């Protein structure tokens, strides 16, 4: 294994004072590092010093709006009712003041070497030192786009640039933005208007790119003004399900910002796009269709509420995890109105669970063959296996041990590799007895290469990145 650091982010602390958080996505960001050095692993973890976490620690209570949690107003004098308190909350929400900066979703290495933790609020873009895990400070965007408050949690990063989406809640749509490595300034490449007449744009946790295009999802699961203002969460949190308004995918040229396709597709629910690429069906060098793959939850929104901590803790051992699959979209580039959505590989082969995916990063935007993701060995209430899916041959290899919960299987290509699956897969695994270990699987055979046991348990985590040692 080459020398370098695997860094993983995720919610790790789910209570403050005597208050227990409700949802998996609410927890305060906890970074875990696995430093590979001369065939040995050195591990460490640390909480991210976001304003939200620091304020919670100082006041021993929730101070910012998290994914499902809204801080209770502090009542100074019970007899005094501020007639404007309702308005105040709306102002605080729409000015972004009350939103969290708890960057607990992912961590990326920018092309210039800076390492940034992220969540769906723009203020939750925080730089860290990947060796000490110290919080360096906010990533200061120098482009005036931060007024829009929210962003996709999964920007697409290469050595030279970063692409991301900024949803527009006022004029429902998405800004597609690009930031050069070394810069703090995002430029707007183009804008897509939502097709549906609903108030809010579709939720975008992630999106996809091909070599020449950006694929922008418009899911029927939409931001909802009603639910954004509610203090108590609904089963769909800040969102609402609007299948009657249609489901769409838009394709924008990276070069010109022009929307070259906008198709209606069957209803879908996804957190994570896997990859996308262009296909030239006529063999004349001109792309005729875009293929975009995602972890698709059979258009069933229940998964969002299944990730409530109480549900996860109390349903252990019950087979209640809703089914998921690799959803493959075909988006014609000939002006057709409709796109297709199919199941890429029979979902039974990966236990009908599919999320927390990764691919060989050298195949980003290219025709590719292998997906690494969390699958399942039923019965289960949460993805409890690692799966390697060959989407060409439609074969799956699964890795599972009794009582485990593995986090995202992260693929690191072997330097100099010539095969797509030549590399290692890293995952951090929680055990039934409260322990945890890091596991390395061979990217090709999907057999265990090594494991390193932690002297304590680590919480479940979300997304990571690889930082090679220079
Ligand atoms: C951890 C994860 O995958 C998602 C986290 C999402 C968050 C923190 C979303 C926060 C939001 C608010 C606090 C209010 C506005 C809407 C929204 C972006 C959902
Ligand atoms: C844990 C998760 C989504 C995380 C977002 O970043 C999804 C799990 C889905 C279960 O099948
Ligand atoms: Fe995610």
TrEMBL record:
Binding site for Fe cation: 154, 205, 272, 463
GO molecular-function term, one example from the UniProt record: metal ion binding
Required cofactor(s): Fe(2+)
GO BP field: carotene catabolic process
Cofactor: binding details: Binds 1 Fe(2+) ion per subunit.
Entry GO CC: chloroplast
Name of a matching Pfam family: RPE65
Origin: domain of life: Eukaryota
Keywords: Dioxygenase, Iron, Metal-binding, Oxidoreductase
Family of the protein in this entry: Belongs to the carotenoid oxygenase family.
Full protein name: Carotenoid oxygenase
């Amino acid at each position: 294994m080459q020398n370098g650091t695997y860094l993983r982010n995720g919610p790790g602390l789910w209570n403050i004072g005597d208050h227990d958080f409700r949802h998996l996505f609410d927890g305060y960001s906890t970074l875990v590092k696995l430093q590979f050095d001369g065939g040995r692993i050195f591990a460490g973890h640390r909480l991210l010093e976001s304003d939200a976490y620091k304020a919670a620690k100082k006041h021993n209570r929730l101070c910012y709006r998290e994914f499902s949690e809204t801080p209770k107003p502090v009542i100074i004098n019970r007899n005094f009712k501020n007639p404007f308190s309702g308005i105040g909350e709306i102002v605080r929400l729409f000015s972004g003041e009350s939103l969290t900066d708890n960057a607990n979703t992912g961590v990326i290495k920018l092309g210039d070497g800076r390492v940034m933790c992220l969540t769906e609020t723009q203020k939750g873009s925080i730089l860290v030192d990947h060796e000490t895990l110290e919080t360096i400070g906010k990533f200061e965007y120098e482009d005036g786009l931060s007024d829009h408050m929210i962003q996709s949690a999964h920007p697409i990063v290469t050595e030279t640039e970063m692409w991301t989406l900024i949803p527009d809640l006022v004029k429902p749509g998405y800004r597609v933005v690009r930031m050069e490595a070394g810069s703090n300034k995002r430029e707007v490449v183009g804008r897509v208007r939502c097709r549906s007449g609903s108030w809010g744009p579709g939720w975008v946790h992630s999106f996809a790119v091909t070599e020449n295009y950006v694929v922008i999802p418009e899911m029927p699961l939409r931001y909802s003004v009603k639910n954004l203002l509610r203090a108590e969460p609904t089963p769909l949190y800040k969102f609402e399900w609007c299948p009657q308004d249609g489901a769409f995918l838009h394709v924008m040229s990276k070069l010109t910002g022009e929307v070259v396709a906008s198709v209606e597709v069957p209803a879908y629910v996804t957190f994570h796009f896997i990859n996308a690429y262009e296909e030239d069906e006529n063999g004349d060098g001109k792309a005729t269709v875009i293929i975009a793959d995602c972890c698709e939850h059979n258009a069933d929104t229940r998964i969002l509420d299944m990730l409530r901590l109480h549900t996860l803790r109390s349903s252990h051992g019950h087979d209640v995890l809703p089914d998921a699959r690799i959803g493959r979209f075909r988006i014609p580039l000939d002006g057709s109105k409709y796109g297709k959505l199919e199941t890429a590989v029979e979902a039974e082969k990966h236990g009908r669970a599919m999320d927390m995916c990764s691919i060989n990063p050298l195949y980003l935007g290219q025709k590719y063959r292998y997906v690494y993701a969390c699958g399942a060995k039923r019965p289960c209430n949460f993805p409890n296996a690692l799966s390697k899916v060959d989407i060409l041959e439609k074969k799956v290899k699964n890795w599972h041990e009794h009582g485990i919960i593995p986090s995202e299987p992260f693929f690191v290509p072997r330097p100099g590799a010539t095969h797509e699956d030549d590399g290692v897969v890293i995952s951090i695994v929680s055990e039934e007895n409260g322990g945890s270990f890091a596991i390395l699987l061979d990217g090709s055979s999907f057999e265990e290469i090594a494991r390193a046991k932690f002297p304590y348990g680590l919480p479940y985590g979300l997304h990571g990145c690889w930082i090679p040692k220079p």
